[in-house]
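The freezer alarm interrupted the setup, so I double-checked each line after restarting. Inputs confirmed:
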Amino acid sequence: AQSVTQPDIHITVSEGASLELRCNYSYGATPYLFWYVQSPGQGLQLLLKYFSGDTLVQGIKGFEAEFKRSQSSFNLRKPSVHWSDAAEYFCAVGAPLTSGSRLTFGEGTQLTVNP
Amino acid sequence: GAVVSQHPSWVICKSGTSVKIECRSLDFQATTMFWYRQFPKQSLMLMATSNEGSKATYEQGVEKDKFLINHASLTLSTLTVTSAHPEDSSFYICSASGTGGTQYFGPGTRLTVL
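Predicted 3D structure, all chains:
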């Protein structure tokens, strides 16, 4: 069975500081990995995804994530956080690229950005 | 691209009434749509998966007679909460997936049952 763990429930950083959100997954085959962001009262916006190829993937809003198979990790990073980045972040793992593949989400990490 | 809309964005209803929520993929054909429920400060809980023209597949513990899902076209799926009760109050989010497999999410619907 697939599972996702986001070890940090809540992270606080200062504006301009770097950020790393952790994500560990368990999956029996090649994982398809996603990071989504959710602002309060909103749906989820796709930040980036990893299917294959280069293990460092670039996303929107200056985010990137690195897939490390040996560590079963897919951590999200940003070199300089902006106040508008405050939100809930979800890591998810899915089955191979088929329309009906379901996602398994982590519990989320709440990011607070201090001025 | 890959925009998904939901309507309404929020709804308040009386206990015992039914509420319909629409999910539309605006610029792509969604062969599969998913319905999630999210409680405050929690992750998303998958309720059901629906494929266009087929019956929805419900997750264990989700009452199919209470949460009716219809996916009549490649751009529209509806979730009807029948005989709603206060415990059905929640944030309902849909997502749509095309042939590429990535799920794109709608903005969510806040349901409050009085």
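Quick read of the result. Chain A has no helices and twelve strands.
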